Amino acid sequence: MLQNIRDNSQGWIAKTIIGVIVALMALTGFDAIFRATSHSQDAAKVNGEEISQGELGQAVEMQRRQLLQQLGKDFDPAMLNEQMLRDAALKGLIDRKLLLQGAADSRFGFSEAALDQQILMTPEFQVDGKFNADRFDQVVRQLGFTRLQFRQMLGQEMLIGQVRAGIEGSAFITDAQVEAFARLEKQTRDFATLTLPADASKVKVTDDEIKAHYDEHAKEFLSPEQVVLDYIELKKSSFFDKVSVKDEDLQAAYQKEIANLAEQRRAAHILIEVNDKTNDAQAKAKVEDIQQRLAKGEDFAALAKEFSQDPGSSARGGDLGYAGKGVYDPAFEDALYALNKDQVSAPVRSQFGWHLIKLLGVEAPSVPTFASLKEKLTHELKSQLVEQKFVEATKQLEDSAFESSDLAQPAQDLGLKVQTSAPFGREGGEGLTANRAVIQAAFSPEVMEEGSNSSALELDPETVVVVRVKEHRQPEQLPLDVVSSAIRAQLTKEHASEAVKTKGEALLAGLRDGKTPLAAKQEGQSWNVVEAASRSQEGVDPQVLQALFRMPKPEGKDKPVYGSLTAADGSFVIVRLNGVNQAAVPTDEEKAQYRQFLASREGKQDFAAYRAQLESTAKIEKY
Length: 623
Fold this sequence. Notes:
- With 623 residues, this protein is α+β, with helices and mostly antiparallel strands.
- Helices cover 47% and strands 17% of the residues.
- β9 and β10 form a beta hairpin.
- The two termini are 46 Å apart.
């Protein structure tokens, strides 16, 4: 338990909002942040602010992706109840809206410079440990954002993170709470268990019993509903051998590649913000005072640590790391690129305030040869051509499948082969039939009941299929002779467990009232004695530990407390609690870990209460 506390309590402050960028956005539904271009009917209103149907649809799809990613092949399509997904997604969007409104009402905020710093220091945007503008654009595009949209999203995440950190970080734990928790956590117990095994060999299950159980539970013995699919598979990779790249296109791509190379500049700055407390003239005067101190020989990094109001860089002496053009505020960037190494700029006014900027280093780009890039550029150009052909073929497949009454014509149009799947049920099968989109399409009313071809289904970015139900197998009653052995095994286990439980409860009653003397062996079984067992004692069944630590303290050494449970294998287990040992005094290190764990737990409860309070006082309209 102590290790669990240590693991669960560390790092909540250190976990920045940027963290693992994709996971962060998945948790909050990044696809649902920006409204769809269509202004159709709203899904909900939160204190007058709309949540559009477009946002809700995107959030539902994000939840669908998360479930598939988390559960993979074991994903149960039955979980994909659309109303369930919609309700959960809408609740998430409402919670997010409430938290953003709460952050605004509480005047939480951050500087644009801090936002810049988060982006610059994000590993996903770096190449060889340094910020790379091309990499940044690539990742942002893959996520479906423009730069401006991404900054807006990240800003919202930082606001919510501030609210969460402020509330969770303010939890206060007293010494008495720590000591009480330590007493419970470090307490040990002396106990013994007596296991009476279920003896299946003494149980006789008759054919009449099996037949009666079969008749009574007939609905449990049905074959699964299954379908067999015909399908056409279109793979992007099949187009690579059908495209070629011209030499002039390769040369043009090479020139574009090297033209995009730009030097990286490592900047440091001192920022004095212009805000409600400091006007423009005051901020400029403060920067000019710092400039004079620099002129007298004081260290730039030391002054940045003392005066800079950029929390992301001040602790590092104002160091912003390496970055190329297009990252900073235009005025900041112009001043930075006018500097020589180790030179400090004059005061610079940006949208954030007044800066002094120092150029710490310059890295000139290394220009690769055409030969070194030819293979890469060839693959990229072919990929573009293949992508175009794949999109065109997918559209052709979609249209042809929609217009056809089977898959023969679409297959002929595209030179593809109609394939057939193995039978599978709603839980899915293997390969193609393990895919959630295929399962959902196969059992949809349009495909299964109306006999239509499905739409084009994307299995992954490289593969698209169209499916059609070839055979629909309805659930059928399984014959008794097929399931009788399984019924016999089940009834045998149940009867054996019931018999040993009856015998065990009689023994337990005798031990409790003293009519049955306590002996080293009872009913031919020996007591297994354990001394000073902790709550996480190794080698003890967790089910036994759970029962043990719920039992009341014995009144005396000769007055044990008894309990019982039925094990997973049907055995009857008697638990005898002999004594409770008071906890050892915790060390200072343990106290600190307990305090951190309790504070983290209470902080999370406080944050949950805050969210509930926002919801209880809000005007929420769902449509």
